[in-house]
Amino acid sequence: PSVPRHTNRLINEKSPYLLQHAHNPVDWYPWGQEAFDKAKKENKLIFLSVGYSTCHWCHVMEEESFKNKEIGEIMNKNFVCIKVDREERPDVDKVYMTFVQATSGGGGWPMSVWLTPDLKPFAGGTYFPPEDGVHRVGFRTVLLRIAEQWKENKDALLESSQKILEALLHVSEIRVRGQESPPPSKEVMATCFQQLSNSYDEDYGGFSKSPKFPTPVNLNFLFTYWALHRTTPEGAQALQMALHTLKMMAHGGIHDHIGQGFHRYSTDQHWHVPHFEKMLYDQGQLAATYSRAFQISGDEFFADVAQDILLYVSRDLSDQAGGFYSAEDADSYPTTTSGEKREGAFCVWAAEEIRALLPDPVEGATEGTTLGDVFMHHYGVKENGNVSPMQDPHQELKGKNVLIVRCSPELTAARFGLEAGRLGALLQEGRRRLSAARAQRPRPHLDTKMLAAWNGLMISGFAQAGAALAEQEYVSRAAQAAAFLRKHLFDAASGRLLRSCYRGKDRTVEQSAVPIQGFLEDYVFVIQALFDLYEASLEQGWLEWALQLQHMQDKLFWDPKGFAYFSSEAGDPSLLLRLKNDQDGAEPTANSVTVTNLLRAACYSGHTEWVEKAGQILAAFSERLQKIPISLPEMARATAVFHHTLKQVVICGDPQGEDTKEMLRCVHSVFSPNKVLMLADGDSAGFLYRQLPFLASLERKDGRATAYLCSNFACSLPVTSPQELRGMLCP
């Protein structure tokens, strides 16, 4: 490789996204004091650019503008330029995204914002083309205009930035007004179900026309709604909506049929042509959701998809030390000799490639049928490509195919005169050969940053799948990752989580010179993961750590005046706003998940003030939950858990005993949204017995493993058979 012409300060960073920009002719600074001081000293505006390493339009803007020498000169002369990886600093991203959304009506990445030297935003947008076009003003023009304004009208700019900040403070405040109590759960659940069924796509599943996101939060809401209304038509409809959506997604092109796992979202209504990046947070949530679908329906199809996701993560997103990487990019070089990357190049196929790989005649099929014919028919492959030009504005997929299951196995078999039972093996062989061929292609960029929050979501995925599918290896993988978090993303001396760590040059785990402290979402998703891991493994050490982290979360983030948690801690002068996110989107928002965490924490500790906090969060979000619960489906779900109180399922028994294991398998095989599992192993000096004195009064009946269902520390009569226990869990 040639020696780079330019090198800026980003060369000293650890984030893969910042390192991608280290050789731009732009004099980039990371977010921090050095840049702020320079802006103040030289009285210069700041240009802030925020993105992430698997963001397609971020790459485009870099190619067009940030690698352009003349544009770089304009930027360096007039601005202090700062680059932020939004996955490292979600707090900075959220403050300025709130501004961009409020002023332009839209938002997204790359985010481009201009700030005064004291960090107040006054102009912003997302992607800008380099030069003026018919409909859009170009980046060069915007830079020059803003620099001119700063020269001519500095005072007016400063004044308007102050007004903007005051307005943002007002708009973004979420707090309890007066003596509010939690909203009525029945109405919130009914409204949320109604809003979801109104936006539901009957044909293809999902909750919008296009683009279509997996949104596990919606599916989890529907599962809980079903569990509380099993015998009603609405309950049946909720389950049908969730299972149909999961089936259609698994058949679609958003699911990588050759390399496993799920892409980020579909650009069309049919789940066919995706944006090809793969994010850790999607894999973690979807593994859990498909496991739940299997638990509820007993249909092996869903178990297979969960295993497919976990295979992908174990193989492609796992660090040898036990952590999980953040993402794989959408863009890659089509061949080893290509000069430029294309979106989806790693995943798409020309018909003739598939024919060449699968030329074998198929025995017992209609005369002349090849394995390629069967495979191409089943996966919707067309001779001149199956991507409509509408889904491919840059013509990157012309003549290519995104595999999508177009037929049932029975139909494909019938089409070629095959016995239905033979099709599975033929398709599997086809996928195996395509996978081997794909392994010869250049791989997309891997973002090897490891984030506490997303690792938490993935640990939950492995733990829940391990429990529901009775696969011990998944539970072990979850425990390995939790041990990784404890070693690399937790500071035992201060009791605090860290946000991120990185894969170093020689594959060791590295930390930044000044580690980024954990945010609310890091605590919340890790605590959830530890509860899930305890229920799957019954190792009390995970519980103990979860409760310690919950106390720390309360201390760092709780808002005693307005209730609920702030997403970042106090005391960072460079953050203009302390915000509370109010949308369950691709990831659930931290305050939504923490409601259930607090209720679980109270069950394992007897600290009732945690139940009170859960109610106060619901009260703070009460207005939104009553009007548009569809924007907070995870919190709407939590209102039901809060209302119905969690049931403690206590199994008294010897952890190694076969009778105990049978009772545990029964608990794990049942979907019950308001159960908390614990094992009373008779060790009165152990953590749980110290936390919950009432456990000492529960005994094994006739020396056999015995289950009790307890609520508010009052317990049912003991049962010793899995059948009776199942009856109690599914009233």
TrEMBL record:
Residues 7-168 form the Spermatogenesis-associated protein 20-like TRX domain. GO terms for biological process: carbohydrate metabolic process. Pfam families: Thioredox_DsbH. InterPro entries: 6-hairpin_glycosidase_sf, 6hp_glycosidase-like_sf, Ssp411, Ssp411-like_TRX, Thioredoxin-like_sf. Gene3D superfamilies: 1.50.10.10, Glutaredoxin. This is SPT20 protein. The gene is Spata20.
